From TrEMBL:
EC number: 2.7.13.3
Organism: Hymenobacter tibetensis
CDD domains reported in the protein's UniProt record: HATPase_EvgS-ArcB-TorS-like (cd16922), HisKA (cd00082), PBP1_sensor_kinase-like (cd06308), REC_OmpR (cd17574)
Membrane-spanning intervals of the chain: 352-374
Name under which the protein is recorded: histidine kinase
Keyword Transmembrane helix listed: yes
Length: 943
């Protein structure tokens, strides 16, 4: 803390002690003194001064000037805070000064931009603001006092040109980068030098207003520019440092130096000019006295100038003595005025002293009274000490109780953390268990679906039993999905991807599913929409689970011949949509109301209406994710109404530009037979007995089930783990792979990634089977390179048709490669298949002349077996390796036939044919003309 602030703090403590202890005793004295002399008044004004730094003689001179001027105004109190060259600290200090209720604020900014908001805040609060030396980036201030830095630079430039006789080189030493003083002086200096083309600034040194910081850079500049004859420094301190550098280099006679400030005192500007260290200095008045004078005019409501630009003067050896004498004269005049003020104060204090002597007797009496009061206070303090001891004992007991409470709270936190960990473990178990249920569900639903769709000889009773199995298997699948959704909500993984749509149409489609079971029980369903179209942003994958659960509950608890009413309307002036599902059931009891939305709570349900306790809890969780509300009202014996309120607009991060398909397949109400029908496709006989499908599944039963469904149509190989499956895939080169995702050792995703990186297997289509049905998991499978992603349980007919579709697409791709080859367009090596064709073509072309080039030779060059090469070429091009070699040789021969220097026999042997007759027969079979006829036609045709 600055010394004057510390002194002020001690003074405040002394004043408070005087006011609380001494003032009550001396009150009568002041009555006596009222007529004896003038009383000492409190300061009339408080001025706050925010100075960015007090380092350096120029800043100290500014503060000294303020203190000199304030010596004539004892009624004014100045509080100065030093920011120490830190703009952020200066902002804080300005706000701190404003909190002390100052009457006027003086600011000397460090940087203009950062200080502008704080100064504007003071000005807008009605506090007059006086800017000293530097400005801000705003006109919200009361007055400005300071020099013209551009004029300083211009004076220095004009003197420099006269000193150098319009010819010479200069080094400029700038002040702190970013400061307005350095910028203004530089601009004025350069602008004035423009009138003297023979004078050049050959180097600029960035200083910090301190002489020590510029010496290394200045030494380097003087050595690099030995022709320099003058240095212009932005202040006298750096100018003195420049002189010391010139002394070290022996350049004091060659290089003249101009400084800025022109302060009085030993080692300062005027003294340096008198000593001959500086050729000249430009006087830049600190302005402390002028700032105080302007501030007092503002406070006293006297006329003042808003812009007060201080004059500048160039001081050299011709006028330095006169300036020194003029400054000394001004100091003597100020001291004379101060002496007169002190004499007046002395006279006033003398009168006060006489009054104090007159009141000494009264002070003695008051002292006796004070002694008695002190004795009485000691007695009271002793009593308080006893009471404090008792309070300490009570506090000690309270501390012990608090420690016990804290210990119990810590134990409760440990127990709560353990409970959370146990709950998390249970949820993790149920989630994993739910995933595992999907595999046996696959083995149940697959055969049942196939029997229902492909067995016309089933009796009515058998079909009814199988339908019952399918319906309850679907119900079990729904419970598994709800449990997984519950887990996603708990861990924050459930995402909302809303698209814009018609909510009326969406809800009507779900209601239509309940028409048939409602009719079978005589329940009437009424659908009431206020408008035929109510558009809004919503996620169908979320809301269909909500409305399906609400309608299922309504149908379940509504008695026969009852009624269910679904109503839709816009509310809140069209900002929200409301969907209500009302039934005429038995209602919800008061006991169940508080727990109706709790997970796994079943309440006092009748035996025939027992549920899982997840539907309503899941619905409420999903509605909250959708930023909506799910509420209910119920009257026992008269039914219940569940109301969903949804915002019509959703934030951008919840919207999706893609139209998502509904991933939730609701299980139909138990009252109706399942209407799900697999796409009936009569299994066609395998059109290509060479089509090979590889099944990779670690569950033996699922493996056998998938293989059994595919064998009537394809050749099937099976593997029970990922590593074996990868080995068989690269050895056999199958036409398609059906693979599970979750396998020990090597997962399905990792297997697909490795297949895509290996050119031997990169072309093979892959179908992934998994119990993981989240959209992000499906995206992960597709990104890994899978062609199709099926979730368990799956429809076997759909799997079969998907395999056929993928094989058909592969055939189309194979035909595309063949067309490229026939068009003689070499494929660009951008995919593994195209790279394989490029490598194969390069090997054959490098061995054209070898008539004994065999498939084994090519396979050996590629590092694979003969069978792998055959299956790869067959899969990519649909042709054999021999036919591919023959194609390339005939293409080469056609090129060689255009060379008249080669005979037909030479062309045949050059293209790798063992005999001329075999070459002629092969060429004619390919191009429908003999080699000689081809040459004649080509050479005869015009270019």
């Amino acid at each position: 803390m600055p010394s004057h602030l510390l002194h002020r703090g001690n003074s405040l403590i002394s004043v408070r002690l005087f006011q609380t202890r001494i003032l009550p005793l001396l009150a009568p004295v002041w009555v006596l003194l009222a007529g004896c002399g003038h009383t000492v008044q409190r300061p009339a004004y408080r001025i706050g001064f925010s100075q960015y730094s007090v380092a350096g003689p120029w800043r100290r001179s500014m503060l000294e000037g303020m203190e000199r001027e304030l010596s004539f105004h004892p009624e004014v109190q100045l509080q100065m805070l030093n920011a120490e060259n830190n703009s952020q600290r200066q902002q804080q200090q300005i706000r701190e000064l404003l909190r002390t209720d100052i009457d006027l604020l003086i600011v000397s900014p460090y940087e203009a931009a950062p200080l502008t908001p704080a100064v504007e805040e003071a000005f807008q609060r009605g506090v007059p603001v006086l800017l000293l030396d530097r400005r801000i980036n705003s006109d919200k201030y009361t007055a400005y006092v300071g020099g013209d830095n551009q004029e300083v630079g211009q004076l220095a430039a004009r003197f420099a040109t006269r000193l150098l006789h319009q010819q010479g080189n200069i080094i400029e030493i700038l002040g702190l980068p970013g400061s307005s003083a350095a910028s203004g002086r530089h601009q004025g200096f350069i602008r004035a030098l423009a009138a003297s083309p023979g004078v050049h600034v050959v180097s600029q040194i960035n200083g910090t207003w301190q002489k020590a910081d510029l010496k290394p850079a200045l030494k380097a500049a003087l050595k690099a520019h030995p022709e320099v004859t003058l240095i212009f420094s932005h202040n006298d301190g750096m100018a003195r440092g420049a002189y010391e550098v010139c002394q070290e280099l022996g350049l004091t006679k060659q290089v003249r130096i101009i400084g800025v400030d022109g302060l009085v005192g030993k080692g300062r500007g005027l003294d340096l000019v008198q000593q001959g260290v500086l050729a000249a200095t430009v006087q830049y008045t600190p302005g402390g006295e002028e700032a105080i004078r302007t501030a007092l005019k503002i406070l006293n409501k006297e006329p003042y100038q808003r812009e007060n630009t201080l004059g500048t003067l160039l001081i050299d050896s011709a006028n330095v003595l006169a300036m020194q004498q003029q400054t000394d004269k001004r100091d003597i005049e100020r001291q004379h005025r101060l002496l007169q003020s002190l004499r007046a104060t002395y006279a006033s204090q003398q009168s006060i002293l006489y009054g104090l002597i007159a009141t000494l007797l009264g002070a003695v009496v008051l002292g006796a009274t004070a002694w008695y009061s002190a004795r009485r206070n000691r007695q009271i303090n002793q009593q308080l000490a006893v009471q404090n001891a008792e309070n300490a004992k009570i506090n000690h007991q309270l501390v012990k109780q608090n420690e016990e409470i804290l210990s119990q709270r810590n134990q409760l936190e440990v127990l709560a953390e353990q409970a959370r960990a146990d709950t998390e473990a249970k949820l993790r178990f149920f989630t994993n268990f739910s995933h595992e249920l999907r595999t046996p569900l696959t083995l149940i639903m697959g055969p049942v679906e196939e029997l229902l769709t492909s067995s016309p000889d089933l009796s009515s009773m058998q079909r009814q039993d199988l339908t019952l199995v399918r319906r309850n298997t679907q119900r079990l699948l729904q419970l598994v999905n709800q449990l997984l959704d519950f887990r996603k909500i708990e861990v924050g993984k459930m995402a909302v991807r809303a698209t814009k749509g018609n909510l009326v149409e969406f809800v009507r489609d779900i209601v239509d599913l309940f028409e048939k079971p409602a009719q079978q029980r005589g329940v009437r369903i009424r659908f009431l929409a206020a408008d035929p179209e109510l558009t809004g942003w919503f996620d169908g994958n979320v809301l269909d689970k909500v409305f399906f659960n609400l309608l299922s509950n309504a149908l379940k608890f509504t008695p026969d011949k009852g009624q269910i009413t679904i109503s839709l309307q816009a509310i809140n002036e069209g900002q929200a949509l409301r969907v209500s599902v009302a039934d005429t059931g038995r209602g919800i009891s008061d006991q169940d109301r508080a727990h109706i939305f709790e997970w796994f709570y079943q309440g006092g349900q009748e035996a025939g209406t027992k549920g899982s306790g997840m539907g309503l809890a899941l619905a409420q969780g999903l509605i909250r994710l959708h930023q909506g509300q799910l509420t209910f009202s119920s009257q026992p014996g008269h039914g219940s109404t569940f109301t969903v309120t949804l915002p019509r607009e959703l934030p951008e991060h919840l919207r999706s530009t893609e139209q998502l398909t509904t991933a939730f397949a609701p299980v139909e109400p138990e009252a109706i037979a399942s209407s799900f029908k697999a796409e009936e496709t009569s299994p066609a006989a395998a059109t290509d007995s060479e089509t090979l499908v590889l099944v990779i599944e670690d569950n033996a039963e699922v493996n056998e089930f998938v293989a059994r469904k595919l064998r009537p149509h394809f050749r099937v190989h099976a593997a029970t783990d990922g590593h074996t499956g990868l080995r068989l895939a690269t050895d056999l080169i199958p036409d398609l792979i059906v693979c599970d995702v979750m396998m020990p050792g090597l997962s399905g995703l990792e297997l697909v990634a490795q297949l895509r990186q290996d050119w031997r297997s990169s072309h093979i289509p892959v179908v992934l089977l998994t119990a993981r049905n989240a959209p992000e998991q499906q995206v992960e499978g597709v990104q890994a390179g899978a062609d199709l992603y099926l979730t368990k349980p799956f429809n076997p007919t759909f799997l079969l048709e998907s395999v056929r579709t993928l094989l058909t697409n592969r055939a189309h791709q194979r035909e595309h490669f063949r067309r490229e080859m026939l068009l003689e367009t070499p494929p660009a090596a951008i995919s593994p298949d195209q790279k394989f064709l490029a490598d194969l073509t390069a090997i054959v072309e490098a061995n054209y002349t070898r008539s004994n080039l065999s498939v084994e030779d090519i396979a050996r060059s590629l590092g694979i077996s003969r069978m792998q090469l055959y299956r790869k070429v067959k899969a990519v091009l649909g042709t054999g390796v021999t036919d591919f070699i023959q194609h390339l040789r005939l293409t080469k021969a056609r090129e060689l036939l255009l060379d008249e220097t080669l005979s037909i026999t030479d062309v045949a042997y050059e293209a790798g044919f063992s005999s001329l007759s075999y070459f002629s027969a092969s060429f004619k079979a390919r191009y429908q003309v003999s080699p000689s006829e081809f040459r004649t036609l080509q050479l005869a045709s015009p270019n």
